[in-house]
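Worked example 3 (structure in, sequence out).
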């Protein structure tokens, strides 16, 4: 079997678990203490541990961390609806509500609209106390990249 001949997962649950494996396999995610769970059609939950390595000079999480968590949660909520193609982020707007210094943060992603070529999804960040610390909305479009061609998405043997 070649690298592009991976078996596609079966059914919605198989697709969700394959997206979780895809997230875990991305090299960038080895840099973060995070995990993804697709909770259902158009919904994702990302847990993330903020540490001092994520801080800007004033001692709180840098905005890139907010973007990473929000984009990933919204992206995977949208890609939960698409079983054949990898989506690409085309735009993302984010709003910072509160700084976070350390601890566990949850990003909750939710699909908003679109089912053909362009998808809109939003996400919110919640700290350990349950307070919202940020939110964002993204636009995602279908790429030419087949999910089944990505080794992280492939069904487990």
């Amino acid at each position: 079997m070649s690298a592009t001949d991976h078996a596609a997962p079966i059914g919605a649950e198989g697709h969700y678990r394959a997206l979780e494996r895809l997230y875990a396999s991305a090299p960038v995610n080895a840099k973060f203490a995070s995990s993804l769970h697709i909770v259902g059609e158009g919904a994702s939950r990302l847990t993330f541990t903020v540490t001092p390595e994520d801080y800007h000079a004033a001692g709180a999480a840098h905005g890139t961390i907010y973007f990473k968590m929000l984009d990933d949660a919204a992206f995977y909520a949208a890609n939960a609806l698409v079983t054949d193609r990898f989506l690409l982020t085309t735009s993302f707007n984010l709003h910072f509500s509160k700084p976070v210094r350390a601890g566990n943060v949850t990003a909750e992603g939710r699909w908003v609209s679109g089912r053909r070529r362009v998808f809109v999804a939003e996400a919110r960040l919640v700290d350990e106390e349950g307070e919202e610390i940020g939110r964002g909305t993204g636009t995602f479009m279908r790429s030419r990249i087949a999910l089944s061609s990505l080794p992280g998405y492939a069904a487990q043997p």
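Notes: The first helix runs from residue 11 to 25. Confidence is low (pLDDT under 50) at residues 1-6.
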